[in-house]
Design brief:
The chain has 195 residues and is an all-alpha fold. It contains nine helices and no strands. The protein is elongated.
Length: 195
């Protein structure tokens, strides 16, 4: 009902509200959801999202112009394979089955990455890709922090540490992307505009 009656000028606000509505609806379906059930669902959802991001990043690598951007989203640079392994282990520990459903935010970000990985390459395209990647990694940092706190609360200390490390890895990638923007892509674009 909210989706049909309200129009949002900013797509990101809409996505955040839709995500809140999703979890509110989940809560209404079962008022007795436990933190463990929410954790299990979110771990499975994040695992599905990470697998899709892994495929998307390889396509972005092929279409990026700058070598630094290509290397920043390489599987070994983002540690995404380790994140998938850690999430799989966390799921096994709470006996959660895999799923393919991802959040509305991840769906939109993946679609944006797909659109930006089209043919051709340029610094302007790399700048656009960077903006989407900033959003992706910012959301991943926040999500892993939340999963880390949940794992701690439900007394899964081993997985809390693993999930915390995933958050730190994503924060490092985000910092590296910011350095690439500040020191390479933006100055090169400005230099081209000045010429």
């Amino acid at each position: 009902m909210i989706k049909q009656t309200l129009k949002y000028p900013d797509g990101w606000i809409k996505l955040i509200i839709l995500t809140i509505v999703r979890y509110t609806n989940m809560e209404k379906k079962n008022d007795s959801l436990t933190l463990t059930e929410i954790y299990k669902s979110l771990v499975a959802e994040q695992l599905a999202a990470e697998k899709k991001y892994q495929k998307s990043f390889s396509k972005i690598q092929a279409s990026a112009q700058t070598d630094e951007l290509k290397s920043a989203i390489a599987p070994d640079a983002t540690d995404i394979e380790n994140h998938i392994s850690r999430l799989s282990r966390a799921m096994e520990s709470v006996k959660q089955k895999a799923q393919t459903q991802i959040s509305a935010i991840d769906e939109t970000l993946l679609e944006s990455l797909k659109q930006s990985s089209g043919k051709g390459s340029s610094l302007a395209k790399d700048a656009g890709i960077l903006q989407i990647l900033f959003a992706v990694f910012s959301i991943k940092v926040a999500r892993y922090e939340s999963l880390h706190r949940m794992a701690s609360a439900i007394e899964q200390p081993e997985y809390a540490l693993l999930l915390e490390q995933c958050g730190k890895d994503n924060q490092n990638t985000l910092s590296y992307l910011n350095q690439i923007a500040q020191n390479i892509i933006y100055p090169e674009m400005q230099k081209m505009n000045a010429d």
